Each structure stands twice: as structure tokens, then as C-alpha cells.
């Protein structure tokens, strides 16, 4: 799409708040790292790997996503992956990004916690000085594992507390409700970490409520199934709870059959604090601007919606008040 609206959404300043850094590993980089680290893959070529990206649901994606992450072994690998993402983010006019990482995916393979976090953190710091992109790192607990394993991961993270802005909850949502992680989230809250959780992606609206009430999260990742509960929608609007919506992900994982069926217009009409995100861009067919162009192509959205999405992205960010205002001023200036 080369319409003026597509140009506008590509060029406008924006923040990204839901992006799993391991989900930015492109097949080419997976193969390059596999070669560098002498890791064998169950795919013969980049093409064969890409061909396997035909997902039927969240779990079918996660199986391949964890296999892809198996090539990450050294601090430099984590740096290279994060740097590649930041260059893509810069091209998409991303001014601020809050990225997730899954330490348990790496520590389970014998990669020490420090290796992953210091590689990612070094790239984020370089991104601030060389690319002018502000950023934060959110550590996710894998919800298919136990709460005791999450607590042990938090212990490993304590020496690196200053590298983290928050914690999140990801992986297989079905049958793993937020309340399974009550104690670890309470401990993170005491540590002053921001709290977020995936909820209402494949799981029911009830999981959005328990993420808010039991875990006391500040943002909901995805949350698109909230529309099944009218009372919940009213609450999300009243309390200005941000929903980090990921449209290409939702279509690839069959949450919606087509982009034309995505409920983003209804979420915006309900006055919800939604913004767009790429989730796992290497697996779902695109980075942040690809998500913007896809939704503006397929759905009845206008310039005012673009402005709202850009505003919401900075509003929902874990930024200090001054930085947030500077970015919001830049959005208003852009739309003048
Ligand atoms: N891990 C990476 N991407 C995810 C998603 N979309 N949902 C849950 N866990 C994930
Ligand atoms: Zn996600």
C-alpha cells in the first residue's frame, strides 16, 4: 500500500511495547548463529525453516520458536540479535521500545542467566547512544513451567535488577491462568518492577481479570478477547488499562481468520488504550510498520486512529513523565 495514509503510519513516531526479542531472530541469523556455534538444526535450509512457519495456534508456533532460540549461546549472539531488531525498529520510526526476553528458554539449555541479559543490555545501551532509541527490558516467566521455577529465575535476576524495568508472563496460555504466579508477581512488585502479563490472547477474558486483580499487572499483553465480556471492557476503558495488540500475530496464530476480521476498530471504538506491536516479527510476517500497514489496509481506519495509536503507545510506556511528554509532543507536532 502506497497511499498517503500508509505513508503517514510509516513515518509517524511510535513506541513498541510488546516484542519478544527471541521472536526477532530471522531465519538467516538462526542459520548464521548455528554455523558460528556448531549447533545442528532440524531444518536443512533457510527456506525449509521459513516453510515451517505455518502455524495453527499458539502452541504450534511456540514449538518452532523455542527450537529457533537454541542457536543462542554467547553474549555476542544475544547482542547481535538485539542489535538487528533495533536497526529494524529505527527504520520504522520507533522512538521507544520495551522488549521481552525469556531467560528460562536459555538457562534450561545451560546458557547462564548473565550471558543472555548482558548481551541484550549492551545492545539496548548502544541503541540509546547510537540510534537515539530509548528502551526497557522486561523479563518474562514461562507460564507452562512452575511458579517455583519462576521464583528461582527471579533469584538469578536479582544481581541484574538495574537492567530490568519489569516482568511479564508468556508462553502457553491455555490451562495456565495468571493466578498460578501470584507469589512471584507479589515479590516482583515489592522489588519495584513494573508488571505485565499475556492474557486474553487464546485464553478467556477471565484471565484478563485475574491478571489485573491477582497479579496486579499494569498492562495486558494482547487482551483482544476482552470484547467477550462487556463489563470487563467498561472497566478496561474506565481504568485506562493498556492492551498491547499484535495484529499480524493474531492472524498468523488464528486468533482471527483474516485481518479484515480483527477487532481493532471495536477496541478503539470502545475507548480502550490500545496500540500496535509486532510480538514475534521474524515469525509473523513483519515488523511494526508492517503491522500498521496491514491493519490500515484491511480495516476501516483513518488518520485520527493513527494519531490515537501513536499517542497510546507512548502513554502506556514505562517512561518518566518528562520523556513521555516529549514523545507525546512529537506526535502532536507530526499530526499538525
Ligand atoms: N512467546 C512469544 N510470543 C508469544 C505469544 N504471542 N504468546 C505467548 N507467548 C509468547
Ligand atoms: Zn507476546
What does this structure look like?
- By secondary structure, this protein is of the alpha/beta class.
- The protein has one domain: Metal-dependent hydrolases (TIM Barrel), CATH 3.20.20.140.
- It is 50% helix and 13% strand.
- It contains 17 helices and 8 strands.
- It has an 8-stranded parallel sheet.
- Helix 1 packs antiparallel against helix 15.
- The radius of gyration is 19 Å and the shape is globular.
- Bound molecules: adenine (ADE) and zinc ion (ZN).
SSE blueprint:
Elements: H1 4-11, E1 14-16, H2 27-37, H3 46-51, H4 58-68, H5 75-91, E2 94-101, H6 103-107, H7 113-131, E3 134-142, H8 147-157, E4 166-170, H9 182-190, E5 194-199, H10 205-213, E6 219-222, H11 230-238, E7 242-245, H12 247-252, H13 264-269, E8 273-276, H14 281-284, H15 288-298, H16 303-315, H17 321-334
Parallel strand pairs: 1-2, 2-3, 3-4, 4-5, 5-6, 6-7, 7-8
Helix pairs in contact: 1-15, 5-7, 8-9, 16-17
Residues 18, 20, 170, 198, 221, 279 line the site of zinc ion (ZN).
Provide a count of the helices.
17
Tell me the number of structural domains.
Answer: 1
Overall geometry comes to globular
Sheet with most strands: strand arrangement: 1-2-3-4-5-6-7-8
Secondary-structure arrangement, i.e. CATH architecture: Alpha-Beta Barrel
> Into which percent range does the helicity of residues fall?
40-55%
**Average of per-residue pLDDT values:** 98
List all distinct small molecules, including ions and cofactors, that are bound in this structure.
adenine, zinc ion
What's the CATH first level? Alpha Beta
* N-end to C-end Cα span: 23 Å
Number of E strands: 8
Q: Low-confidence parts lasting 5 or more residues at pLDDT below 50?
A: none
Strand content: 5-15%
The sequence of SSEs as H and E is HEHHHHEHHEHEHEHEHEHHEHHHH
Structural class: alpha/beta
> What is CATH's topology name?
TIM Barrel
**Largest sheet, if any?**
8 strands, parallel
Query: Which value, in Å, is the CA radius of gyration?
Result: 19 Å
